[in-house]
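Long-time lurker, finally posting.

We've been working with Integrase catalytic domain-containing protein (Polytomella parva) and I want a structural starting point before designing mutants. I don't trust myself to interpret raw outputs, so I'm hoping someone here can both generate the structure tokens and explain anything notable. Sequence follows.
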Amino acid sequence: SAKVKAFIRECPQCQSNKASTQLPAGLLHPLQIAPAPWSSVSLDFITDLPKTVAGFDCIIVFVDRFSKMAHFVACHKTITAAETGQLFLATVFRIHGMPKDLVSDRDPRFTS
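Top reply, 14 upvotes:
Generated this for you. Predicted structure of Integrase catalytic domain-containing protein:
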């Protein structure tokens, strides 16, 4: 019985034909067009980069959704939501002011 379970677990055809236990994904909804520069900012992480001399292994990207202007900030992969907020204040808010909305990809740093 253990051999059969191991075979099924490793068999590509068995895995591709296995019934999904997740709900089907809903339809995507496009975001509204930003009305002005820096009124809507998206942010994302570029991770698993080679470590720099300073020990950074990640980049956080803040993008103005109106003009597509971006700020790239070196950080650590283990950055917390609070530290991300501090980087946002030091990078975006200091120069452009507070946007009306922030768009993220539901990263665990923000949803937990």
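Before you design anything, note these points.
The domain at 40-111 is CATH 3.30.420.10 (Nucleotidyltransferase; domain 5).
Strands lie at 40-46, 58-64, 70-75, 101-103.
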